[in-house]
What we know:
By secondary structure, this protein is of the alpha/beta class. The protein has helices at 11-23, 34-44, 60-68, 87-96, 108-122, 159-170, 178-186, 194-208; strands at residues 3-7, 27-31, 48-52, 78-83, 100-104, 134-136, 139-142, 147-150, 153-155, 176-177, 215-218, 222-225. The strands form 3 sheets. A 5-stranded parallel beta sheet has the order 2-1-3-4-5, with helices on both faces. A 4-stranded antiparallel beta sheet has the order 6-7-8-9, with helices on one face. The protein has a 3-stranded antiparallel beta sheet with strand order 10-12-11.
Amino acid sequence: MQTIVVIDDEEDILELLDFNLTREGYRVILQKDGPQGLAAIRSLIPDLVILDLMLPGLNGLDVCRIVKNDKDLEHIPIVMLTVKGEEEDIVTGFELGADDYITKPFSIHVLVARVRAVLRRSKGKVDIVSNRHIHVGNLRIDPAMFNVNVQGRDIRLTKMEFGILNTLAENEGRVLTRKQLLKAVQGNVETVTDRTIDVHLASLRKKLGDTGYLIQTVRGVGYRLKSEYEKK
C-alpha cells in the first residue's frame, strides 16, 4: 500500500482527500500545518506528498524546499495545491522540485488521476533514458545520468523539466505540440492543461539562463529546440 501525506489546513479538503484516496487503495496521513507535515514526511518517507502552499507555521514552499534539499527525502514526489493566479508561487515550486500542481477549487477525479500519474513517473515507468549524450550549442544532456550541463555548469532540473528538455533535444529543430511533450514525459494527458506545460517551460528557461533562448515558442502550436546550426 502506497502512503500519501496530505498537508492542508482546510478540514473539508482533508476529509475529501482522505475519503477518495483511501477508497483508491492508498494509505492517507493527514496533517494541518507545515511543521507537523514536515515531521510526518521525515518519519514516514511517504510515496507522495500533497502540499498546500498556504499553511500555518511553515508555508508550503518552505516545506518543499526543505524536502528537496534533504538527500533522504528529495526523491519523494510533491503535488502542490494552490489557488488560481499564484503563477509566481507555482513556478517557484517547480524550481524547488515540485512535480505537479493542482488549483483550488479542484475536481477530485482530476486530482486522483494526477496523483496516479505522478506516482507512475516516480517509479520510472516513463522511459526518457538513452545511452547517448545530446549536444546542442553549449547545452549538454546526459540522459543516462539524468544530467544537464550548460557551459560547464550542472543545472538541477525536476523530472518533468528534464523529460521535456530531453524530448525537445531528441527532436532538435522540430516543433512539438504541448500534448506531444506531455505524452512523451507523462503518458496520460487527459487530465492536464496547456498551462501545465507552459509553467514547466518557463521554469526550465529560467534555469537555463542565457541558453534558454534555444527553447522557442511557436505561437498556436507548441515548442521546439533550436538547432545548433541556426543563428541565435
